[in-house]
Amino acid sequence: MCVSLHDVAPPTWSRCETLLAALAQVAPVPHTLLVVPDYHRRGDGLPPWYRAALAARFEAGDELALHGFFHLDDAPAPGSPRGWLRRRVLTCGEGEFAALGRDEASARLRAGEAWFRHAGWPLYGFVAPAWLLGAGAWQALHDSAFTYTTTHRHFHLLQPRRAVAAPCIVYSTRSRWRRALSLARNAGLTQRGALLARLALHPDDALHPAVVLQAQRLLEKLLRERVAMTKIGFANALGAALAPGAPQIGGMTTSDSAATAPPTATPASTSLG
Predict the structure, then answer these.
(1) 51-80: string of b/e by CB count within 10 Å (b at 16+)?
(2) Is the full-model pTM beyond 0.85?
(3) Average pLDDT of the chain, as a whole number
(4) Does pLDDT of 123 surpass 60?
(5) Maximum separation of any 2 CA atoms in the chain, in Å
(6) Residue 49 CB: number of other CB atoms within 10 A?
(7) In angstroms, rounded to a whole number, what is the distance separating the alpha carbons of residues 126 and 249?
(8) β-strands 148-150, 154-158: how paired?
């Protein structure tokens, strides 16, 4: 199982710390922190206190991954009702890589890589805000050196190209009815049969005690049957299993994703990014 914390940035860090502390009350599991270099174009950069905080998490065993660059969808406005629903309503205008062309998506990926190099941290994974990857973004990813990406329902190994079903437990907290729906849905979730289970938390989850409590209980439940690891840890294990002569893992697709169309850029109905 993988626990990820989305939207990590200086303006969100206090809420991120609240969530990390709550999870630590259950067990000292490794996390994958999804870092946004220039969150909402605020230009916060890498202040010393924030750099020190992330460095401490990294040294403690957490992975740092790239989560977009701005976490804002600034591509041309959607031209269809479906596009408007996906990019403006369900994702609150944060699906940065939903409609970017290949060149712009590549430029932002390279900018993110440069940001990580400047900070001195290794970088293996990229997760698009709101899990939205348009055709141009998929092309850019396949041309990149990233090891993996994830969508709402799958874990995608990029070198070699394979995908496994990986259900994601996530909350939407923007309104009372969304929170109620998330809590009810997640209470009944089971992860049996899936090779990988994912618990994805967002900074605003920290503002709602019922969400935090349920996330703690779900983590405790999952740890009874699963081993917690970072996403790059799972990617390495999956890559080893794909090596010639290795036994096949149940739930893994057998076709190379290069021979198929990229997945449709469809967010979770309660996605926050």
Answers:
(1) bebbeebbeeebbbbbbbbbbbbebeebee
(2) yes
(3) 85
(4) yes
(5) 51
(6) 9
(7) 23
(8) antiparallel
